[in-house]
Amino acid sequence: MNVPSEASARRQTGAHQFKASFEFFTPKTDAMEERFWESVHKLAPLKPRFVSVTYGAGGSTRERTLRMVSQVKAETGVDAAAHLTCVGASRDEVDQVVHAYKTAGIKRIVALRGDPPGGPGQPFVQHPGGYANAAELVTGIRRIGDFDISVAAYPERHPQSPNWDVEIDNLKRKLDAGASRAITQMFFDNNFYFELLDRAAKAGIRAPIVPGIQPIHSFRQISSFAAKCGASMPDWLAARFDGLEENDPETHALVASAVAAEQVLELVDAGITEFHFLALNRSNFVLALARLLGVRPG
Ligand code: FAD
Fold first, then answer.
1. pLDDT of the residue at 122
2. What is the CA(169)–ligand 1 centre distance, in A?
3. N or C: which end of the chain has fewer CB within 10 A?
4. The 3-state secondary structure of the chain, one letter per residue
């Protein structure tokens, strides 16, 4: 008799086993906002654990992020998480945003340091009177309210971290300060993620480290974005997309979904049950990946 392995059984079982959250970016124009809502309304019936909305570089989308997050909750009933960064702002300014989230009934925050104005490659300079890093920000948020807080983790280390000891120590500090989970930077080789889990476990980190899954809807865009934030694009993966974006967008889309499916199913086989999908305000890839996990509109 062919007995299904535990892993393949997991692939076939229902939504209740998996927890998924979806990340959207704050739209900057009315046309982008239309697409945002279209995707939110398509994905909300999947009943994600939460939908998170990014905070534009240096706080550039402060008001819009607040409006989007409040509206997601009001219009769909899905829990919404607001990203928040502390770069380029005083503690008072950041605290005011946290108070605004609290007043609006937002209960979840993704707490981040943020990138310097010159981009992720530039050195971070603390605002005089500002929070020094994400760990301090988590402590500050905790003082204001009982939020569910997520922080960032980096399977390939943060570009500015000197070594793994500093990296894991920093992650532990953020979690010990009161975050409930970490969400990872995008990665395209699952081994980086598995190694991060090992390192975290050895350091006594018990909180979930949720993989951030980035479907490659445009190889050009995603590989450029990945390079900026220190996520490597393996040569074998680049080879899969070679020449498709310009010459054969349909095949590009098929390869992109196959690649994302392969990545997610390998994680499922390794026992991972929580996922954070970077939707980039598109719904199709996430809808397809959710189906692979047995998550259907309910
Ligand atoms: P931190 O954890 O504070 O630090 C980053 C690195 O600095 C650490 O890895 C560590 O190496 C070093 N470091 C920190 N403190 C110390 C210390 N005391 N001593 C030595 N080294 C130290 N950016 C946005 O602008 N808006 C967003 O909405 C947004 N969302 C994100 C969501 C996720 C899931 C992720 C992974 C990233 C997101 N980012 C966002 C990007 C993030 O702001 C950048 O990666 C930023 O450079 C680091 O933020 P952090 O919270 O990880 O910083």
1. 81
2. 13
3. N
4. CCCCCHHHHHHHCCHHHCEEEEEECCCCCHHHHHHHHHHHHHHHHHCCCEEEECCCHHHCCHHHHHHHHHHHHHHHCCCEEEEEECCCCCHHHHHHHHHHHHHCCCCEEEEECCCCCCCCCCCCCCCCCCCCCHHHHHHHHHHHCCCEEEEEECCCCCCCCCCHHHHHHHHHHHHHCCCCEEEECCCCCHHHHHHHHHHHHHCCCCCCEECEECCCCCHHHHHHHHHHCCCCCCHHHHHHHCCHHHHCHHHHHHHHHHHHHHHHHHHHHCCCCEEEEECCCCCHHHHHHHHHCCCCCC
